[in-house]
Amino acid sequence: MGIEGHKVEPRSQEFVIPQEVMLGPGQQLFDFAARCLSEFLDALPVGNQGLQLGFSFSFPCHQTGLDKSTLISWTKGFRCSGVEGQDVVQLLRDAIQRQGTYSIDVVAVVNDTVGTMMGCEPGVGPCEVGLVVDTGTNACYMEEARHVAVLDEDRGRVCISVEWGSFSDDGALGPVLTIFDRTLDHESLNLGAQRFEKMIGGLYLGELVRLVLAHLARCGVLFGGYTSPALLRQGGILLEHVAEMEDPSAGAARVHAILQDLGLNPRASDAEFVQHVCAAVCTRAAQLCAAALAAVLSRLQHSREQQTLQIAVATGGRVFERHPRFLSILQETVMLLAPECDVSFIPSVDGGGQGVAMVTAVAARLAAHRCLLEETLAPFRLTREQLAAVQAQMREAMAKGLQGEASSLRMLPTYIRDTPDGSERGDFLALDLGGTNFRVLLVRVATGGVQITSQIYSIPECVAQGSGQQLFDHIVDCIVDFQEKQGLSGQSLPLGFTFSFPCMQLGLDQGILLNWTKGFNASDCEGQDVVCLLREAIGRRQAVELNVVAIVNDTVGTMMSCGYEDPHCEVGLIVELEVCGSLEGDWELLEHSVWHREMLERGRPRLLCELTTGWSNSRVQQTCLELAVCWGEEGKAFTQGTGTNACYMEELRNVASVAGDSGHMCINMEWGAFGDDGSLSMLSTCFDASVDQASINPGKQRFEKMISGMYLGEIVRHTLLHLTSLGVLFRGQQTQRLQTRDIFKTKFLSEIESDSLALRQVRAILEDLGLSLTSDDALMVLEVCQAVSQRAAQLCGAGVAAVVEKIRENRGLEELTVSVGVDGTLYKLHPHFSSLVAATVRELAPRCVVTFLQSEDGSGKGAALVTAVACRLAQMTCV
Ligand code: BG6
Ligand code: GLC
Ligand code: GLC
């Protein structure tokens, strides 16, 4: 690149490959290439560092990347051992390294036809075909990506190397083959292969002429019936000879001279005959080549639905260079066979070298981008040691928190001393506040199991962030509405309140809100007993009687509800994902996205199922519309569930703030705040810092912000912004969309990472977000999503490992069998999250056998069970 713009200054040197190298061991061939390369570079003013090489390798290969190409089989005059089935780029890299003089990176490999096409200036139309007739023959062209099955693409075009040399290896051209073609094939290195090439390629034209001339001599038609050793020796007549003799301007004298050079004794009439043979062989070659090219061109014309296809074909190879007539026959025949194509033939200037350099430059840019991507994502990729350190820090913070010492883990006692024993019975009300949805539930615990009826209510943003009184009045209104709908008015059922925020509990029915988390910020609540606030609101609304028995964190509810089925369940875990946003807007996604539908069928349906039976699309739509209506005028639901947290059964003797030495107590860890004392700062990336700064509670809930909910989408968005500023993504163009906070909903992570999605669907999803991107972009976005959610799952796993190891050590067990009850949309719906959590736990807590139970109707049911246990105990006390 000079000041005047693009300028290509090719230098080149040719080396003849000795035949024994072409037929010897592969290593020898690549060593030869590396040696030639050094020799060439020695004579040039280039340093020996950081050179980037493009490799034109003209044999049939399976290419799986710009720099990855496996040789299928040798063609033409080559048959080196140990190369077929190998990646030729790697073989060349190894040879260059063995040579040791230059440090060169092989960044791209292309077929010669591709180099020819890429280096060509457009003619009347764009140059979209490369045609080579050298020792062998082949063509490449730009195919519509949607026609290429192995590609995960539906737009754009991709260059296809036809490898037409092997056309008719299945016998399609049988009737056209002559006895000479059969003999030539028999004597060739690759019997039965490249049958089409063997009628066209320069390596074979001389040979075909020789076989015909020898036959005619033997029949006595030529040379007085005499032959010569050259005429009988394979390779005795070369392309050069044929080209020269066939040239109509070559006089009989010249033909004579050549034949004499071949040791023959031509008679006067022989020259004309020989010229005839040469012309016949070459004409057939050019016509066959034209037929193949016409097939390619009319395919292009059809698939592009153009009346006339204007196109340029780049030509390269010695047959074109030495054989002017070849091109003119080719042109004539193409015109005849594909009259609707207006073709200009453009000879390549430097044997395709410029095209190879072009591809190399592109590949080098992509490789540089990949490096930057890797660098950017490196801080997200945690090593086993880092995860073990998180586990150890968590253990330390747990111990301190339990002792009442300064710690980012509050380790709050819940006054729950036992998991259910199965004898609980009765009807209970439950409230569930702090997850994605606010729900009121009626829970019937009976001999046959637990039966739940529930309804979702909206908590508009203005209420969640308004006054406390307003919030609790709203809650009571919802309960009253629910009671009316369920015919429960006037009954005072025992009520359990799932309240998923950090509370300091002094008893089962006393919980002082320490601070709001997630999207809540109602005034005058922090420092207050939430049960009192609820009772006061009940009081304000006369004529309702409610008996609030217990307040429960969602983790505890989840553990309890799983514990009802599995007595080993002594841990509760929540990993939430925000879901709602505007349902109206989401409906579009509902329609388009597989994942969302799956979500409706597996996750939220607990909520939606109650309103629907049977899943027809229109029914889902109707339900959503209904919900949108009931969720506020603008159809806007407030997103709340963004947390992560865990609880577990601790030995009472370890809990400093509660009296007693025997038995257990469930501890609400409030692990979302882990690291708020700075202990996670080594792991925190600059993207985490940006997300934290922009949140409503900067500096708080640092662990939560690396694991759960909407934060992941924001981390991804910040990472993408950074990659864009480096020019790695979106061609370096910052879009308004990407700068919009929260556009990148965490659900897209699940959606994008879903294995069933093809890359082009990933791209469609991103385009839905208003981001226009190439497939390379889509792949990188996918990798960013994977890195961010993988870290989230691993950190979560490190936390669980700390908890189960603590339980094991508490009990002095060699091995602990324990179950973890889990809830939360991220955990349940992300395609890889749960398995990554489990794998991390296995790795970091090898002496614990941990089963993860997905809680169905988690904490609502749990709250009812806690209430049931409390009622049972109260009755026993009465008796
Ligand atoms: C539900 C619980 O089952 O799961 C909620 O009832 C809890 O209390 C929720 O917060 C967690 O999941 P999410 O992601 O839906 O908020
Ligand atoms: C052979 C090779 C092909 C190459 C052509 C021209 O047919 O298989 O890859 O393009 O020769 O060199
Ligand atoms: C937040 C809350 C916590 C809750 C979690 C999951 O971290 O502080 O109490 O358990 O979210 O909902």
TrEMBL record:
Pathway of action: Carbohydrate degradation; glycolysis; D-glyceraldehyde 3-phosphate and glycerone phosphate from D-glucose: step 1/4; Carbohydrate metabolism; hexose metabolism
Subcellular location: Mitochondrion outer membrane
Top-level taxon: Eukaryota
Protein name, as recorded: Hexokinase-3
Ranges where the Hexokinase C-terminal domain occurs: 129-362, 638-869
Molecular function via GO: ATP binding; D-glucose binding; fructokinase activity; glucokinase activity
Family classification: Belongs to the hexokinase family.
PANTHER family referenced in this protein's UniProt entry, alphabetically: HEXOKINASE (PTHR19443), PHOSPHOTRANSFERASE (PTHR19443:SF84)
GO annotation, biological process: glucose metabolic process; glycolytic process; intracellular glucose homeostasis
Tagged with keyword Nucleotide-binding: yes
GO cellular component, one term: cytosol
Function: Catalyzes the phosphorylation of hexose, such as D-glucose and D-fructose, to hexose 6-phosphate (D-glucose 6-phosphate and D-fructose 6-phosphate, respectively). Mediates the initial step of glycolysis by catalyzing phosphorylation of D-glucose to D-glucose 6-phosphate.
Gene encoding the protein: HK3
Pfam annotation, one family: Hexokinase_1
InterPro entries with a match to the protein in the record: ATPase_NBD, Hexokinase, Hexokinase_BS, Hexokinase_C, Hexokinase_N
Bilayer topology term: Peripheral membrane protein
Keywords linked to the UniProt accession: Allosteric enzyme, ATP-binding, Glycolysis, Kinase, Nucleotide-binding, Repeat, Transferase
